[in-house]
Structure formats: structure tokens, C-alpha cells
Amino acid sequence: MAFDGIVIANLVHDIRERLEGGKINRIAQPEKDELLFTVKNNKNTWRLSISASASLPLVYFTPVNKPGPAVAPNFCMLLRKHIGSGRIVRVSQPGLDRIIVFEIEHLDEMGDPGRKRLIVELMGKHSNIIFCQEDGTILDSIKHISAQVSSVREVLPGRPYFIPHTTEKADPLTVTQEEFSARIGSAAAPLSKALYQNLTGLSPVIGTELCHLASLDGDRSANECNETELTHLYHMFSLIMDDIRSGHFSPNIVYRDGEPVEFASVPLTCYEGAGYLAKSYADISVLLDAYYAEKSRITRIRQKSVDLRHVVQTALERNYRKYDLQLKQLKDTEKRDRYKVCGELLNTYGYELSGGEKELKCLNYYTGEEIRISLDPQLTAQENAQKYFARYNKLKRTFEALTTLTAETKQEIDHLESISAALDIAVKEEDLVQIREELIEFDFIRKRAPGSRKPKITSRPWHYRSTDGFDIYVGKNNYQNEEVTFRLANGGDWWFHAKGIPGSHIIVRAGGKKLPDRVFEEAGALAAWYSKGRGNEKVEVDYIERRHVRKAAGGAPGFVIYHTNYSLMATPACTLEEVKD
After folding, report:
1. Helix axis angle, 227-246 relative to 177-185, nearest 10°?
2. Per-residue pLDDT tens for 144-190?
3. Cα→Cα distances 506→152, 486, 546, 558, Å
4. Coarse DSSP helix, strand, coil percentages of the chain, rounded to the nearest 5 percent
5. Cβ(215)–Cβ(144) under 8 Å?
6. Quick one: which of 217, 218, 221, 176 has its CA closest to 199?
7. What is the tens place of the pLDDT at every residue in 26-46?
């Protein structure tokens, strides 16, 4: 993720607009490494969350008022004592460092005005919140760093505060073209890496973005770039820095296959292409809240579904092995007809044998060609014929049995793959309940103890509305596929499904009207999106009127048959807003 100097510049810009001149109304410390400031300014009340967590350092405005502990920690009490009713007079960021400095004006014990500085360092595991005198003397910090912990800088009461410069990087906001070209052009590292290694506050994704904007290969060594290429790169870099200086930010999250993969405060054109979708935000705090909430939700769902995925994957691997073996055995039965022909030819031409021969050459009257038939010299022609008929009958029985078994195994593989696809698109814990019930019903999971209650099913199909106002329903799993196709849809509605791969059933409620072409395109995009082909650039989608779709006899829920369908090529996408029923 790109929680870099540019994102922090975006945050500082918003904090200045909202909090400069505001009065601190409340300070809380809901977690050991987190503060929550409530500030009143211009008749508005703002809550600013500041976290120095090693795993997730973060600053953002939040509407949520987190309760603090009954007894406030010492650091919180110190802040309340000094700046509990102070006024935020200035918020700044040194260059593009991942640091935010709050200058707070307050009255001391004698009633005289004074200033303090609250410095927030957002540097991964080195993140900290440091409270200082105006002259930079540290009063306290949310994390104490002694000389035994860090040889670079002590963060303890009484020590002077300074920004540690462990690497000599240039300030992107003040670097000249000559210095830029000299630093980047002499770096013996990939170009994208050279950018964030030599310029403060840039992240790897911004390095990649700059190379993309300049149409340069980010993996190419920086010292191989010529003067023209470096000049062009600097111009692209300058445009982004100009936007930062003027406060023009474009917060956005890039999604791939429905999952957030990156965010930034500048457009990320390097992620354009199949499967990628960028969503813009007007507020960086709203973006951060949405991004981390979505990441947390996906992580939680994956943790909750790990046991189900293990069951499905184990069953799939077992069935894949069984299916491969059955296909191999089935191929071995292909020679059964030759054994039958050999037996028949021995009965026809066996009178020519005198006994003891190892081979019979004769005319195959089925093909008109000469054939060689191997013989057991110790057996008569009739006995050799019976031996060939016995092989034929054995392979025939094996073929008939394997044909049934192979079809059953393939049916079970298709069923398990459809469940796997349902697990991939599950977005809430309630979506997993129906999937678990299906695994229990088909004996992939041990059945519940007698007398135990079935869980309540609250998950419902997705409901979208097309641009032209037509209702579109999407099944999240096999049970819901059955529901939308055979209970929700009417005969004149349109049914969509990705061709030949597991995926959701899509129903468009026609309401007796003719659907515009755009509705077919939008429904096709949804069918491609909610399928195993989501990561492909294009997916072939079948569509047909619902009246022509039939449930597969003896098949698992959601398995259907249809004929004389239409097809379209769709780009997987989900651009429609979900309707909250």
C-alpha cells in the first residue's frame, strides 16, 4: 500500500483546512498506541484518529467516537494537562517526510500563552507520537526508544527531538532538475526503485507510476537512461509535485477482481487494464476508512472460509486424481473392438491352421485390409478365439462401468468447482452459511448431530439495476442460482452464465419489455465478473430466455441444461450500484 509522503501531504492539506484555528475539546487514548482528538472549529466538530501501530500506522478523520479506558494512560493525561483545551495554530509536513507536526497554543499554569508540538511519525514499525516543547525538547512519547533499542536516536523525556536521516535523500518538493538527473542517472538500480530510494516520501508504486507516465521501463537500470529520458522523467515528476504544492490531490483505490490492491493520492495509470478498476474519492480519510475496512473484511472472510476451502480443495484433488486414472483406464478399453474382430476372424479362418502357429495372417473383411493375429501356439484356433472374446467381454464390462463412474466423477468435480467459485465471491460471513449447508447436504462435511438446529439463512442474491432501469439478480452460490433461475425469474426473463466455467446465474427481469443492447452488455459483464473467468480480459457468456433453461436431471442445485442459446464476449466488470432491498 502507498501510505507515503504524498498521501500524508493530502492528509495534511485536509487537516489544515479543518483543524487550523480549532480548539481541542477532548483527547482520548483508546489503544496503547492510538490517540483520538476531538476538535471544534468553525461550528464543526472533527474527530482525528492518530495511530502509531507498528503494523498499521494511520492518521485519518473518523465519524466514530472510540471509548477510552476508565483510567487514562500517562501519555494521555500529560496531553490533557498541557493541551487539553489548546488551539491548533499550524499543521505542517517537513518536505515529503512521513511526518505530521501539530503546533498547539495553550495557556500554562500561570495563565501565560505557550506553544507545544505534537509530532506524528508514520514510519512503519518505527512509528511514534512525540510531544515536545516549542524548542524541540521531548516531554514524552507514546513509545519510549532508548539507546539499547536504537543507535540512531533516543526518544525519551528531556532528549532533543530531531528527524533521523539514515539515508541521504533529496526533498522532492525542492530538488532541481540537475540534482534529480544526477541522482537518478547514477543509480545502479532499476529505474522505479532508484526514484523512491533517492527521493524522500516516494513509495514503490509512485516510482512505478512515474516510469509509466514517462513511458520508460521501470525494471531497466537507471544509469542506462540517457539525458533526454531523464529530462522527460523529471517533467512527469514535476507535474505531480506541482499538484502537491497547490493542494490538488486525486485520492483513489485500485481494485483487481473486486479486491483493493493499492491506493494513492495521485491517479495510478500504471494499473489500467483488464481486471483493474479505479474508484475515486473526494476525501482521503474516507478512502483510508474504506480501504482498510475492505481489506479487513476480505481477511476476515478468508479466515472464516479457510476450513471450507480446505474441504473443497482436498475433495477436488482426490477427484482430479481419480478422474485422471479413470480416463487412463477408459483409454485402455479402446482396443476391445479389435479383440472382438480377432475372435470373429479366428472363427472364420481358423480351419487354415494346422496347430502350433504363433500368428495368423488373414483378410479383415470389415476393412478389406490384411491383419496379423497373435496366437498362443499351445491352444487351438477355437481356444484362441475364445480367449480373444473373453478379453473383449472383460474390456466391454470395464468400459460400461468406467463410463458411468467417469461421468459421476466429472459431475462431482463440476459441483466442487462451483462451490469453490462461490467461496471466491463470498463477501460476508452470512454468505458462507449456505455454502457450508451444501457441503453438509452432499456429505463433504460431517452431518450435524441429531436434534441440532439448522442455521438461519440470511444471505440473499445480489440485486442490481441496469442503466436502463431493469432489475438484475445474481446468485452467490448454487442454492441461490437455483432460486434466481427457477423461483425468482419468469419465462420471459433473460438468463446469463459464463460459458463452460463455474459462475453465478444472472437473471434480468424483462417485465414483458424488449431489452436494450446495453442491458445485455451489462448483464454479460456481471456474468463474466461473477465467474472463474473474472481475471481474463474477455469471457464468453451464454444468454437465453429463462423458459428454455431446464434443471439437469439428478444434478446438484444450480446445474442446468439449455439449447439454442446466444453468446457474447464480455469484459468482466461490476460497474452497477447494488440495490439495497
Report:
1. 120
2. 999 888 888 999 999 999 988 756 889 999 999 999 999 999 999 99
3. 60, 12, 10, 12
4. 40, 25, 35
5. no
6. 176
7. 999 999 999 999 999 999 999
